Fold:
Amino acid sequence: MRKLVFLASFVLACASMVAAQSTDYHKVEVFGGYSHNRVDTGIDDSDPELSDIINEREGFNGFEAAVTGNVSRYFGLKFDVSGHFKKKTFPVGTTSLEIDSDLWQFMGGVQLKDNSTETRFKPFAHALFGVARASNDGRFGPGGCIAVLPSPCSDTFEENDTGWAAAFGGGLDIRAGKKIDIRVIQVDYNPTRVFDSTQHNFRIGAGIVIH
Structure:
């Protein structure tokens, strides 16, 4: 009887150790870093070429931040926010037009990654869905003017729109310490739908993950 009790205790102890090891993963991660978005400008022509994927896009610089709650070692629920910005000046007759463009995105979805505390190289993939907010603020230089009937002529204008957004992609994190990983790269296909058209954007970034 004493041997049976000892054997049962040993089995229970081993089971507890296995369970502890199987749940030894990061429960929460917070990411922040630099992000570059190749935003679809909407330029179109009658002779599309493969090079248009690059040529018909503008580079927006900005940031990305995300919080992920891991419900298991390999599966997490993710909330992501990003902001990308661009300033560009165009010649217009004898004056110029300066446009400040912003693209904000708020998305949520799922992430797949090995979140073990002992894993060093951590490739990941995610699928995110949410909303995009785009705005363009324009200002003419000296002598510039927009005819806005029936109002008097104005040298500034503003347009903005809200629509849907998504991001499909992934990247690689490398463990740099007990609480810190380095996100060496993240690449996403980042479609948005604003101003009555769909933009096929691509974003790339890097940063730090804190557990």
User: Anything to note?
Assistant: The first strand starts at residue 28 and ends at 40. DSSP finds two helices and eight strands in the chain. The beta strands are 28-40, 57-70, 75-92, 95-113, 121-140, 156-175, 180-194, 197-210. The radius of gyration is 25 Å.
